[in-house]
Design a protein that fits this description.
The protein has about 290 residues and is mainly alpha-helical. The chain folds into two domains: about 80 residues, Helix Hairpins; about 210 residues, Four Helix Bundle (Hemerythrin (Met), subunit A). It is built from eight helices and two strands. A two-stranded antiparallel sheet has the order 1-2. A hairpin with an 8-residue loop joins strand 1 and strand 2. Helix 5 packs antiparallel against helix 8 and helix 7 packs antiparallel against helix 8. The longest helix has about 40 residues.
């Protein structure tokens, strides 16, 4: 439905009544219910979680399919394009705040919490031989007051994290080349460099999985390894999840390009994913310096 149309493109677009929001809410209900029961050792929780994820993924597939169909049939005008741009901008801003909270937790632990525990006023409350140093790696010294945390080794920036940094920076270059090629209507070049970007994102995920195996099996570094382990895995884990989502988005955009979607003038779906991918790159650079090097 449209009003104030300019030629064949509507000034604004009102979608038909949809079941998608209600079904998405239903899926999220089962996800949260199942997750909460699963962590409390209820055997049926995992099945509720899987049911909710199945509902949610089905809804997203259908909902995005409807949006793609609407875009390709030309019912989205300039105002809709602007609303999409603002929506993606605010979404990325919320993601910036999300990671800022975890970076803030890491900074607070290193700059305030651990040093304050080493002050004279708090020293008597702690165990003998406490040393307020970062990272907390020594059993009975800073890692655990009662030796409840096993000794571990911190993750070195060489070489896996550095290789992953090179992969993400390279993917930022390839997606930029693809964007310029799309603006020049060179579809074959766009598709080639988009597949390269997808491959680089997938390689990052494979190497991070290997890094986690190395951390657990050889370094004894786990989520339970004190404040260092918890902040390390929360930051790198959530970033890896964002890389996974970004790689999935890139894959979908690439498949759409192969189907002939997007033009040199109208391609915000491509641009939105590119914005997100550059955000993922920037977050990793901060993470690489603050978590691995400092």
């Amino acid at each position: 439905m449209s009003a104030n149309s300019h030629g064949s493109v509507p000034h604004y677009f009102v979608p038909e009544p949809s079941r998608h929001p209600a079904m998405a809410a239903l899926g999220l209900f089962f996800v949260i219910l199942g997750a909460s029961q699963w962590v409390n050792d209820s055997s049926w929780g995992q099945y509720s979680l899987l049911l909710g994820m199945a509902i949610l993924l089905t809804v997203l597939y259908q909902w995005f399919g409807d949006a793609i169909h609407e875009s390709e049939t030309g019912v989205y005008g300039d105002n809709i394009d602007a609303s999409f741009r603002w929506s993606m901008s605010w979404f990325i801003f919320s993601e910036v705040m999300f990671f800022a909270a975890f970076f803030g937790a890491l900074w607070w632990a290193r700059a305030h919490s651990v040093p304050n525990l080493g002050e004279a006023d708090n020293f008597a409350l702690l165990w003998p031989d406490f040393k307020a140093i970062w990272p907390s790696v020594a059993e009975g010294v800073t890692a655990s007051p009662a030796q409840t945390i096993e000794p571990f080794v911190t993750m070195s920036p060489l070489w896996l994290p550095t290789i992953n940094t090179a992969l993400l920076l390279s993917s930022g270059v390839t997606i930029t080349i693809a964007h310029h090629a799309l603006r020049e209507s060179d579809r074959s070049k766009t598709i080639l460099f988009m597949w390269m970007t997808v491959l680089l994102g997938a390689c990052f995920l494979v190497l991070q999985g290997y890094e986690y195996h190395h951390a657990y099996a050889e370094l004894n570094l786990k989520l339970s390894s004190g404040i260092f382990g918890s902040t390390f895995f929360m930051l790198t884990g959530f970033h890896g999840f964002h890389v996974f989502l970004g790689t999935l988005m890139l894959l979908i955009i690439t498949l759409r390009l192969q189907k002939g979607h997007f033009t040199a003038e109208k391609h915000f779906g491509f641009e939105g994913v590119a914005w997100y991918w550059h955000f993922v790159d920037v977050v990793w650079l901060g993470l690489y310096v603050l978590v691995y090097w400092l």
